[in-house]
């Protein structure tokens, strides 16, 4: 049975008590009811499960591991507020409870994993979207987001009728700028006359741009009012607001991370979700869990690109697949990227 937990910061006395209980063979709350089977845990990024995007993709990998590998999964939600200061305590509690691997969903977990991993050398820690913190028991699962975004740019440039398209980034970080760079390059390489409007919702250390749909909706509405008829948002949960705005205006939206056409929470807008730039976070999570279960834990950089279908462009919307000139252009661009003919930028 999967356990969903919200691990709060504990005081010194409570922490000491938990350590004492563990040392004496007692169980923490995360261990209660365990029968000693293989356990794996994921700690969600801002927005948590239900974001219809990044976190949900990680959850899908855990769910697959539970079904196919018999793993007992634990999910840890972020604490309230955008700063989420409890990452070290969250990862420590998950590792102490015997979960292996423990996976931090998102680059924001990098400092916490760097602090916690050395204390649990027999536990594998997965870090998604970051290579800045490394270690013998750290698996850095990263993706060529710029490549998938380039394909989205090709599609946007082919379908726009106004010659104006938009990009919305949740938070202006180097990771999200990879999405922007690939998208803009894909647009311009396809049709240099198309104007790309770029907007970021928040700046670090304010990470609310990943969690507030109203911000995404307002930004998208502004771009629609300025003539954009295709909007690509890389903004986590906030991107759902962008999709809503585009759909209500009967314009195209491009989703991100998960195939958002198939996300139940976005079903009302699916006919206007042209495609999505997918990251195979699900398989990355599953593969790491399987490697630990098989006794050959992954570590170091594990990169997923177009060549391994680690990133790509979803084809669930029949309206998209029926656009033969668009899909042909996308297919050619994909082949050229894999062949090295097209070099996609990782920064604007």
From TrEMBL:
The keyword Magnesium does not apply. Residues 45-343 form the ABC transporter substrate-binding protein PnrA-like domain. It is found in: Cell membrane. PROSITE patterns: PROKAR_LIPOPROTEIN (PS51257). InterPro entries: BMP_lipoprotein, Peripla_BP_I, PnrA-like. It comes from the Bacteria. Keywords: Cell membrane, Lipoprotein, Membrane, Signal. Residues 1-23 form the signal peptide. This is Basic membrane protein A. The lineage of its organism: Bacteria, Bacillati, Actinomycetota, Actinomycetes, Kitasatosporales.
